[in-house]
UniProtKB/TrEMBL annotation:
<keyword id="KW-0812">Transmembrane</keyword>
<feature type="region of interest" description="Disordered">
    <location>
        <begin position="226"/>
        <end position="249"/>
    </location>
</feature>
<feature type="compositionally biased region" description="Basic and acidic residues">
    <location>
        <begin position="1231"/>
        <end position="1250"/>
    </location>
</feature>
<feature type="domain" description="THO complex subunitTHOC2 C-terminal">
    <location>
        <begin position="759"/>
        <end position="1059"/>
    </location>
</feature>
<feature type="domain" description="THO complex subunit 2 N-terminal">
    <location>
        <begin position="20"/>
        <end position="288"/>
    </location>
</feature>
<dbReference type="InterPro" id="IPR021418">
    <property type="entry name" value="THO_THOC2_C"/>
</dbReference>
<keyword id="KW-0472">Membrane</keyword>
<feature type="compositionally biased region" description="Polar residues">
    <location>
        <begin position="1115"/>
        <end position="1145"/>
    </location>
</feature>
<dbReference type="GO" id="GO:0003729">
    <property type="term" value="F:mRNA binding"/>
</dbReference>
<dbReference type="InterPro" id="IPR040007">
    <property type="entry name" value="Tho2"/>
</dbReference>
<dbReference type="GO" id="GO:0000445">
    <property type="term" value="C:THO complex part of transcription export complex"/>
</dbReference>
<feature type="compositionally biased region" description="Basic and acidic residues">
    <location>
        <begin position="1174"/>
        <end position="1223"/>
    </location>
</feature>
<feature type="compositionally biased region" description="Basic and acidic residues">
    <location>
        <begin position="1146"/>
        <end position="1167"/>
    </location>
</feature>
<protein>
    <recommendedName>
        <fullName>THO complex subunit 2</fullName>
    </recommendedName>
</protein>
<keyword id="KW-1133">Transmembrane helix</keyword>
<feature type="region of interest" description="Disordered">
    <location>
        <begin position="1072"/>
        <end position="1287"/>
    </location>
</feature>
<comment type="subunit">
    <text>Component of the THO subcomplex, which is composed of THOC1, THOC2, THOC3, THOC5, THOC6 and THOC7. The THO subcomplex interacts with DDX39B to form the THO-DDX39B complex which multimerizes into a 28-subunit tetrameric assembly. Component of the transcription/export (TREX) complex at least composed of ALYREF/THOC4, DDX39B, SARNP/CIP29, CHTOP and the THO subcomplex; in the complex interacts with THOC1, THOC3, THOC5, THOC7 and DDX39B. TREX seems to have a dynamic structure involving ATP-dependent remodeling. Interacts with POLDIP3 and ZC3H11A.</text>
</comment>
Length: 1402
């Protein structure tokens, strides 16, 4: 290589090995050039370094500082004049740049011209003749010496115009752009000569943004008058500064020139050096072809640039992506200056979306179009003033995108775009200011005018406007109605943006969805939910995004937003969910769809056909119907066990109710709007729903029920078409066959839902039948149909009589009402036929529902647990259905179904059920109890009705025989009077449970029982003393909760008022259930078959025991409900042991007792005191008087042979009474002496039994635990919390008061010698029986061992008495258990208490 010596010199110089240079044959000239003088001197190449340095200085001075004397312009101008003439000649002929260049060279040589000066003159002429690009560019290329020299000359020219008031000519920009375009100079070399500096441009951009934000802040802030004056002065100063013309921006001028000639490459390089959209924010930058658009402007054909190097027109989508999209990206929001170009780009996008699946680069191009929409189209429309056409045009493109893409674009537009450019910052502030102005003046009266203003403002900046409007609605919910009405002037794009803004407001993480008390949902969420329902119903807005948002929230375990779905379905489909339905509405809900729409809701929501169709289409298109149902069904338990950990119990209950109600509402919408095929296609079978999707059974059957109905009807229609027959009997048989075909797989599927032992008591067919039917299948609401038809008739008559309605409108309304009337009548007829078919089907199936081998008690338990209780709290219609189904099963005479036992289990233990309900479930449970009580009350009120509907029915059997039901055996049936006793027991149990819940002090217990009591008020209480007990306790709740818990206070006050209004319908207890008086003859009480033999003695005993217990609780001054257990035990024992007394003596005692009772009652009425202490003192005084009177009468009668024995007996009784008092005061149970005392009083007539019951139930002040014995404590637990299905014998005897027991056990006779001979030995292992009639026993009135010694006599009396009590108290129950074949572990003594038992029949 030629430069090898030079390279070697460089290498060894770097290494410092200079001596090698000499030996590497490096020329001497190179060594002198590279090495320093001292090194050269040491190598011997020069003589002296000092002289060598002086010589170098002289040579440099001559080269660089000595000027050559060229012929300058001022010295000799002839050459330059000829040069200018040569360049300025006409170039239209055959003159070429080559010829002119030869002439220029001649002039330079002849006149000795400066070449650089000549180049400068060429540029000057080119600048004046900028249209001759081709000639001058060719000339400069030929003349060209160094590109850097040319760049310096251009830079010198630009610098000349950088003075403050100078303006750079466009021709200079043009020649610079042309030279750059033809690569005669480099942009980097020229860029440094241009002003201003890049740093100044960035600073200017930041300053513009800060000023824009300051302006926006002023528009939002409240400014005081003094501050306004200061701001005005500052604004004037800024305007004066702006009026001073700043230096020309040469970089933007060069950029403009480059764009005009089509040099996109260099223009792009310049724009990259500047902030985003800074260059295009200047109007002179011609990225678009026009800066303004006159009215009525039309598009025209644009010819391409003549420059061959300019970008070519795009002919394919790929060309569009490669060139045009990058240009649009630099243009940004300033595309707003050219609406025609804006529309053209949008239409290209629509064309691309239609050919999306044909294009090979579909993903790349789609992302490009989305980027253009984000960076260009949406920001540009924000700067367009009220251009609705462009908004609709843009929607034509956006509607082709999935809503996920659209919402992402709206999010960028709302949250980021407005901060990227000063103009957009100002526009945002102006939009907010204008929105405030409109919203302040928006009312119901000026909706139209305000709506137009909102529409104009929304065409350009909908996100900002809607964001402010939603913030106002969250604060002021009374704006919802006028805002919804004012949105009718929006474009389709604006509606879609509104949907996104609503979702974003709902998902705002900074907003708490609970109020600060953590017990209710925030009002802002409720307001937005109401707005959603109204807006989506009235306007055609896509629902997919909102529904997906709710679905995602449910997936995340959040149920607050179900409120939105509830409102949307309610408004769009007209399906309303409320537990405050009237009886008329509830009746209408049991009919067809038309009757539901007309009479089932509070507000008749008409014209929902289109909106419900839109909702249905969205759910089907996006496959959201079943996922929403399943998620809601699963979320119900999630609310309690996942969400409810840290939330207030009241809020948890509210969320649970909201989730459940929305599920019922949404499921009802799907059932009524989806076609049969769509529904069956989407809902899986019941076993898959429960086992695979873990859906609760009640929800699973709720979803499957419409599917079964659809399938049965479809199969029924197929069978009718296959075999044509019009006979009703044939139709019924075909319907039954259709049911069998459809339900048989269901019967098999439900077996997997429960353990195998469940099906030992229930048949799967019975289980599936219960869950698959509805009220529509069981009864036709004829009165509801008739009521709605009459309403329409009245409406037609009113239309005819109204003269103000135009004739055409009148005719239209009459036709509508008539058509609706015909629809209702046709629907009623159709339902009637359907109900008849269903009842016939049930009649055929009933024999296979329940197993004969199963225990009746366990069957009822399974029925309640798996069927009745889960469904009765599912919805109000289901609550009515459950009650009616039980009645239907009874009416169908279903074998092995004990109606009495079912009703008894429902009414006897409601405490746990009430305590575990939410607020809405309490409404439904109360409605269920009310319907059950309606049936019971109907039977109770009329003997004929009872005998017609209950007698000879297997449900009212009191003894179950292995041979089955024998309808003719009257002894096995519960007679009317005993049924009235049973109903009284149920009322008593309801009262007891209600008082317990009211006394707990727990919020849930009190709220729920008040709701239940309000619901059952038409049927309960009917007994005066029970009503008084409830009234007293509710009054106390009102006093206690007035300032503590206002919601409980409101519930209690409402119930108290309604209870007082029902007081006129209450009756005394002896009118509610007949209580026979004991016979005044010698006939023993044991021969009286009926309630009279047990009811009356029980009441007197009850009062005696209460008085005794009150003696022991003087410090408290009142009693506690647990004492009812003690009284109940005493009642049972005394009533069963009173046969040991002489019957004649008993009659006289009763006469005396009646007189003394009347006197004391009159005395009591005169006495004003009514406090618990006064009552207790009166009772004690009465007991003392009664005991004294008995002793006197015993002395007068002289029935005993020895007066001494009588006196000793009186002393023993007095002593035993003292012991009883002492033990009662210590909380100990009474001994047999106390029971003897009760026996003496059991014959007296007691008319104050109702007050005794009321006193035992009120107990306003609870007794302290320290005043109770261990036995009382156990009895309290059994009394208040005993489980009906796991009771033992003792709880059974302690739980119920004797007066409410229809368990009629005759009094025990005295044991005589004859009876002793005829009795079977108790130790023989055989049942205890006594032979002979009762008359024979009572004919002998002598006593056993009467001539024996006195101590043995007294001991024998006591032992015999205790033995008789024990036998009567326990043995009868064991014999009863054996008679009805109840296993020991399954015995339910509460339920068996309803049977009529004659002890000595066994």
């Amino acid at each position: 290589r030629d430069d090898m010596p030079s390279i070697l010199a460089d290498v060894f110089s770097i290494l410092g090995k200079f001596e090698f240079l000499f030996y590497c044959f490096v020329p001497e000239a190179i060594l002198k050039e590279r090495l320093d003088p001292e090194t050269l001197e040491s190598l011997g190449l020069i003589k002296q370094a000092h002289q060598f340095n002086q010589k170098i200085v002289k040579i440099k001075t001559k080269l660089f500082y000595k000027q050559q004397k060229f012929n300058l312009l001022r010295e000799e101008n002839e050459g330059y004049a000829k040069l200018i003439t040569e360049l300025g000649q006409d170039l239209s002929g055959n003159i070429t740049s080559h010829l002119v260049l030869e002439s220029i060279k001649s002039l330079i040589g002849c006149f000795n011209l400066d070449p650089n000066r000549v180049l400068d003159i060429i540029l000057e002429v080119y600048e004046s003749r900028s249209d001759q690009d081709e000639f001058f560019l060719s000339l400069i290329k030929s003349y060209m010496c160094e590109p850097l020299t040319l760049c310096h000359i251009l830079g010198f020219k630009f610098k000349f115009y950088q003075e403050p008031n100078e303006e750079t000519p466009k021709s200079l920009y043009h020649i610079a752009a042309a030279l750059l375009h033809h690569n005669l100079i480099e942009l980097e070399d020229l860029y440094v000569h241009l002003m201003p500096l890049d740093a100044a441009i960035v600073e200017e951009h930041k300053r513009d943004i800060s000023e824009a934000k300051q302006i926006a802040r002023k528009l939002v802030m409240v400014v005081l008058p003094s501050e306004k004056n200061e701001d005005k002065e500052k604004d004037k100063e800024k305007e004066e500064e702006k009026n001073e013309k700043p230096p020309d921006n040469q970089k933007l001028g060069l950029l403009e020139a480059l764009l005009r000639i089509g040099d996109w490459h260099h223009a792009q390089s310049i724009m990259d050096q500047m902030p985003s959209f800074y260059a295009t924010s200047h109007k002179a930058i011609p990225l678009y072809r026009r800066a303004g658009l006159p009215k009525g402007a039309r598009g025209c054909v644009l010819h391409p640039l003549r420059n061959k190097r300019a970008p070519r027109p795009a002919e394919t989508f790929e060309d569009l992506r490669r060139d045009t999209f990058s240009m649009l990206g630099y243009l940004g929001p300033h595309l707003s200056h050219d609406p025609i170009l804006f529309a053209k780009i949008i239409r290209l996008g629509k064309g691309f979306m239609k050919e999306l699946f044909v294009c090979s680069l579909q993903d790349t191009l789609l992302s490009c179009f989305l980027s253009i929409a984000d960076q260009v189209l949406l920001p540009s429309i924000s700067l367009m003033e009220c251009n609705a056409c462009m908004s609709e045009e843009l929607w034509g493109l956006f509607k082709l995108f999935p809503y996920q893409h659209r919402y992402r674009l709206y999010g960028q537009w709302k949250n980021e775009t407005y901060s990227s450019h000063p103009l957009l910052v100002k526009v945002k502030a102006q939009t907010v200011e204008r929105a405030k102005y409109i919203m302040k003046r928006l009312t119901k009266e000026n909706v139209k005018q305000s709506g137009r203003q909102i529409g104009k403002l929304s065409h350009s900046n909908p996100t900002i406007l809607f964001d402010y409007m939603l913030s106002q609605i969250q604060w002021y919910d009374n704006l919802i109605v006028p805002v919804v009405d004012s949105l009718k002037y929006l474009t389709s794009l604006n509606y879609d943006v509104l949907a996104y803004c609503i979702i974003e407001a709902l998902a705002n993480p900074e907003k708490e969805k609970m109020k600060h008390d953590d017990t209710t949902i925030s009002s802002w969420l409720q307001s937005l939910a109401s707005l959603c329902g109204a807006v989506f119903r009235k306007y055609p807005i896509e629902l997919a995004g909102l529904l997906q948002y709710v679905t995602n929230q449910l997936k995340a375990g959040k149920s607050f937003d179900l409120l939105i779905l509830k409102e949307v379905v309610q408004k769009m489909a007209g399906i309303e969910i409320t537990d405050e339905m009237t009886s008329e509405q509830l009746e209408a809900m049991t009919g067809g769809e038309q009757l539901k729409a007309e009479g089932g809701y509070f507000g008749q929501i008409r014209n929902t056909k289109k909106s419900s169709q839109r909702l249905k289409d969205v759910l089907l298109d996006h496959e959201l119907a079943l996922p929403l149902c399943l998620l809601m069904a699963q979320q119900r338990n999630g609310v309690v066990f996942l969400e409810g950990g840290e939330k207030h119990l009241k809020l948890v209950g509210h969320l649970y109710d909201q989730c459940h109600d929305t599920l019922v509402q949404f499921g009802g919408f799907l059932a009524s709007n989806l076609s049969t095929e769509d529904y069956i296609k989407r809902v899986p079978s019941i076993d898959i729903l429960c086992n695979q999707f873990h859906t609760p059974h009640d929800a699973a059957f709720f979803l499957s029920r419409p599917m079964y109905a659809h399938q049965i009807l479809s199969k029924y229609d197929e069978l009718k078409k296959a075999e044509k027959g019009n006979k009703q009997q044939q139709k019924v048989h075909k319907y039954v066959a259709a049911c069998e075909q459809v339900m048989t797989p269901v019967h098999e599927a439900v077996v997997s839902l429960h353990p195998a032992r469940v099906w030992d008591d229930l048949r799967p067919q019975f289980y599936a039948t219960f869950w698959s039917l509805t009220m529509y299948d069981l009864a036709v609401p004829h009165s509801a149909y008739e009521r709605e038809v009459n309403k329409l008739k009245v409406q037609i008559k009113a239309i005819e009589e109204n003269p103000e309605i135009p004739l055409n409108k009148k005719k239209k309304e009459k036709e509508r009402c008539t058509a609706l009337q015909e629809k209702l009548q046709e629907e009623e007829k159709k339902q009637l036929e359907h109900v008849q078919r269903v009842l016939h089907r049930l009649k055929l199936e009933k024999d296979n529902w329940l197993l004969a081998k199963s225990t009746k008690n366990e069957t009822i338990t399974k029925f309640l647990q798996l069927c009745l209780f889960p469904r009765c709290i599912f919805s109000s219609i289901d609550a009515v259905y459950c009650a009616r189904f039980v009645e239907l099963v009874h009416q169908q005479k279903t074998p092995n179904f004990c109606t009495l036992l079912c009703y008894d289990r429902v009414f006897s233990a409601i405490i746990y059920t009430v305590a575990s309900c939410t607020e809405n479930e309490s409404h439904r449970y109360g409605r269920f109890l009310c319907c059950m009580l309606e049936t019971v009350t109907r039977w109770h009120s009329d003997r004929a009705t009872y005998e017609k509907e209950c007698v000879n029915y297997p449900g009212f059997l009191t003894i179950f025989r292995a041979t089955g039901f024998d309808g003719g055996n009257k002894a096995d049936q519960l007679d009317y009077e005993n049924f009235r006793h049973v109903v009284h027991k149920w009322h008593y149990m309801l009262t007891k449970a209600s008082v317990h819940c009211l006394e707990t002090g727990d919020y849930t217990h009190i709220r729920n029982i008040l709701i239940v009591l309000t619901k059952i008020l038409p049927c309960y209480p009917k007994v005066l003393n029970l009503g008084q007990a409830l009234e007293c306790r509710v009054h106390k709740i009102c006093l206690e909760e007035k300032d503590k818990r206002p919601d409980l206070y409101a519930l209690a006050m409402g119930y108290s008022g309604r209870l007082k209004s029902q007081k006129v319908h209450m009756v005394p207890e002896n009118e509610f259930h007949h209580k026979e008086q004991p016979a005044r003859s010698a006939t023993p009480a044991s021969q009286q078959n009926g309630p009279g033999s047990t009811g009356k003695p029980a009441t007197s005993t009850s009062k005696t025991d209460e008085g005794t217990s009150e003696d022991g609780d003087k410090s408290q001054g009142t009693t506690k409900p647990v004492n009812k257990a003690n009284s109940a035990a005493a009642k049972v024992t005394t009533s069963n042991g009173n046969g040991a007394l002489n019957s004649t003596k008993a009659v006289k005692d009763r006469d005396d007792k009646e007189k003394s009772g009347k006197e004391k009652k009159e005395k009591k009425e005169k006495t004003p005191g009514s406090t618990p202490e006064t009552k207790a003192e009166n009772r004690r005084e009465k007991q003392r008087d009664e005991r004294a009177g008995k002793e006197e009468r015993a002395a007068r009668e002289g029935k005993e042979k020895t007066p001494k024995a009588e006196r000793e007996k009186a002393k023993a009784e007095e002593k035993s009474s003292k012991d009883d008092k002492a033990k009662a005061g210590n909380g100990e149970p009474a001994e047999p002496s106390r029971e003897r005392e009760a026996i003496k009083e059991s014959k007296s007539k007691e008319k104050g039994d109702r007050s005794a019951v009321a006193g035992s139930l009120k107990s306003p002040v609870p007794r302290s635990e320290s005043a109770e014995s261990e036995r009382d404590h156990k009895r309290r637990k059994l009394d208040s919390h005993s489980s009906p299905s796991h009771s033992s014998l003792c709880p059974f005897l302690l739980y119920l008061p004797e007066r409410s027991l229809p368990l009629h056990i005759p009094a025990a006779p005295k044991i005589t010698k004859e009876s002793c001979r005829t009795c079977t030995c108790m130790t023989s292992g055989k049942p205890y029986r006594i032979h002979g009639s009762w008359k024979a026993f009572h004919g002998h009135q002598h006593n056993i061992l009467q001539n024996w010694e006195k101590p043995l006599k007294d001991l024998a009396k006591k032992l015999l008495y205790i033995l008789s009590i024990f036998i009567l108290k326990y043995l009868s129950i064991f014999i009863l258990m054996k008679a009805v074949s109840v296993p020991w572990e399954e015995r339910n003594f509460l339920s068996i208490s309803i049977f009529r038992v004659d002890f000595f029949a066994f």
